[in-house]
Amino acid sequence: MFPLTYSTVLLSLVTASSTSMIWLYLSGKIRNSALTTTTTTEKEDKINKKDRVIGTNTQFVKYVVSVQYWNYHLCGAAIITDKWIISSAQCYHYRRGKVNGYRAIGGLHFLGETRSINQYVNISRVVIHPRFYYSEKCRQIASDIALLELVSPFLLDKFVDKIQLPLIRQSFTGRATVSGWGGYRSGAVPLGRVNITLLSYEECVEQNKLNNLTAKITMHKSMICGYPVENNHTVCRSDVGSPLVQGDTLIGIASFAQVCVITLGGKYISLYTKVSRYINFINKYVKDLY
């Protein structure tokens, strides 16, 4: 989320395949939250009047999760049951079959801050869609969706809760909101929210052709496309995995965005995995959705 500045961390912390990781945003600038952790006292930890749970101007978005790799924020995710979260496949496919080092943090507003409302749970399994595909050379990505099973369930409360899924092949128009931590500054980084104008498939293909500064990527009808409503906001590459929500429904998972910069008058599109196209995949593994 904009406005943010980056700090650089060696890519070898995540994978030796740094060239490929650049395109997959895991090469995006990540920050060691352990280096900037602040701890609040119990008295300070009581939520004040400015802190609200899920609403128009909320500071806490209770379905949003930070998935971390050895204390580094890796990708965003959304809670769909107390034992399952959903995210982007590109975040995890370089470590297929490995879960050591992964953990999910619920009830988090500031990266790098510890509060009594935060819940920390390790990941026991990562299920990547079998048709997930990307090609750095051809600028193609497909079925960018992954399910993460937790070692133990989240305790669902007013700070940590699930988001409902759409109907099979349900479509959405109008506006939606994406929540994520985007690029990083020093200190505790607050969760950002950006309103997105949704485009039709045809509009998105045309926008992708016209905008020379938009990195071209092959479009699919299993994607949702949009651009920020406000000119002074944008979705960053490192928002990958973050949930796109309309009302009380998870409609997309952030999959592709531009570098986290803003040009006046620029309409930089961002792409999201269309969740309604993958309900059968989700139902195959998540048995307690309803």
How would you describe the overall organization of this protein?
It is a single chain. This protein is mainly beta and 290 residues long. The chain has two domains: 11-162 and 280-285, Thrombin, subunit H, CATH 2.40.10; 175-277, Trypsin-like serine proteases (Thrombin, subunit H). The chain has four helices and 18 strands. The chain has helices at residues 18-23, 42-45, 201-210, 279-285; strands at residues 38-39, 64-69, 72-81, 84-87, 102-106, 110-111, 113-114, 119-128, 133-135, 140-142, 146-150, 175-180, 189-190, 192-199, 223-228, 243-246, 249-256, 270-274. The strands form five sheets. A six-stranded antiparallel β-barrel has the order 2-3-4-11-8-5. Strands 12-14-15-18-17-16 form a six-stranded antiparallel β-barrel. A two-stranded parallel sheet has the order 1-7. The radius of gyration is 18 Å and the shape is globular. The two termini are 32 Å apart.
Please give a quick description of this structure.
By secondary structure, the chain is mainly beta. The protein contains four helices and 18 strands.
